[in-house]
Amino acid sequence: MLVSKKVFELPEVTTLSGKTIRNVRVGWESYGELDAEKSNAILVCHFFSGTSHAAGKYAESDPLPGYWDAIIGPGKAIDTDKYFVFSSDTLINLNANDPNVVTTGPASVDPATGAPYGLTFPLLTIGDFVRVQKALVDSLGIKTLRAVVGPSMGGLQTYEWAATYPDRVERIAPVIAAAEPGAWLVAWLNAWATPIRLDPNWRGGDYYGKAPPTAGLAEALKLVTLHANHQRFIDATYGRRAAKPDADPLAALAHQYAVEAALEDVGRARAALCDANHLLYLVKANQAFLPGAGAGAASAEEGLKRVKAPALVIYSPTDLVFPAERVEATIAVLRRNGAPLETATLTGPYGHLNGVLAIAEQADRIAGFLDAEF
């Protein structure tokens, strides 16, 4: 599929914390057609470092399609011959410097000052992301979503939709996500963010118009990439090879192993499209996630009790970001609600990234779940 980026605009948004953001813009894209009853819409929510580009290509020459192209498209698990499938860039999207991303965040210009917000931008939550998505849904005249689905942070948004707007969602399919991050993930997210804060170019977030903290951002993205993978894939791919055949890692401190060089290359490449402050804001939003926060839930369990939608929960037993036991704890709470509940696991070698790279393993389960009448 060839797809195009559209822009959704709101004059202002009031955050769950009571702050007002003016001139809000997010990008979105869609696949398939909305039926006359507007009853066939499926919202796809993206992961931490992702964008709304869930499937298809912007141009034939693009090297890769959207991240879930394996399951979104004509005749695929999320069948665009049947469903109107759409996805939006979140607020504070990490890829703020990607020309195909539209997002309001710290790098945006504050209309009150004419300068980038920087750290004057209000802190946001996953609930704020969903509030803007709901405004997009309302603008399309969609009363009820056939499904909300998404991996990782997209799964958090899926839980938020079902807990805050239970009457607007017919079913959910959160992938590689638990409904509560836990202290372990909170600490890991802090580790992701730390290299940015240590980069002298960060300047307390005031780097717009100056040299950005590219080195710290690249190191942060290297950590994100490593954490999202699994040793099975890393060991099998790189072993203990040197990055260069004639540069023995024991011959000089500067000589690297292949895995070190590869992760640094990935970090630098991704940093070119990302914004450091946006990463810090995303870290805070994920650390603070509470399903049903938009409806006033005071705990994850309280929020999950509001979920009425049938659920298909897909997870990876080798996930190092959302470990299996945390997902299974979420499943246990959902099961007590009494709504239909299915679970499925992904067995690829990629750990957390199985939710993107190995999602086709569960294509048939996803298709059946979306088509079922509950």
What does this structure look like?
The structure is a single chain. The chain is of the alpha/beta class and 374 residues long. It contains 11 helices and 10 strands. Helix 1 (126-139) crosses helix 2 (153-164), helix 3 (182-198) runs antiparallel to helix 4 and helix 4 crosses helix 6. The mean pLDDT is 97.
Key features of this structure:
2 domains; 10 strands; 374 residues; Rna Polymerase Sigma Factor, Chain: A; alpha/beta; eight-stranded mixed sheet; Rossmann fold
Specify the helix fraction band: 25-40%
Predict the CATH topology of the largest domain.
Rossmann fold
Which CATH class of the largest domain?
A: Alpha Beta
Strand order of the largest sheet: 1-2-6-3-7-8-9-10
Give a short summary of the structure.
The protein is built from eleven helices and ten strands. The chain is α/β, with parallel strands linked by helices.
Detail the topology: elements first, then pairings.
Blueprint: E1 6-14, E2 20-31, E3 41-44, E4 72-73, E5 78-79, E6 84-88, H1 126-139, E7 147-151, H2 153-164, E8 172-175, H3 182-198, H4 214-228, H5 231-238, H6 258-271, H7 276-287, H8 300-304, E9 311-315, H9 324-336, E10 341-345, H10 354-357, H11 363-371
Parallel strand pairs: 3-6, 3-7, 4-5, 7-8, 8-9, 9-10
Antiparallel strand pairs: 1-2, 2-6
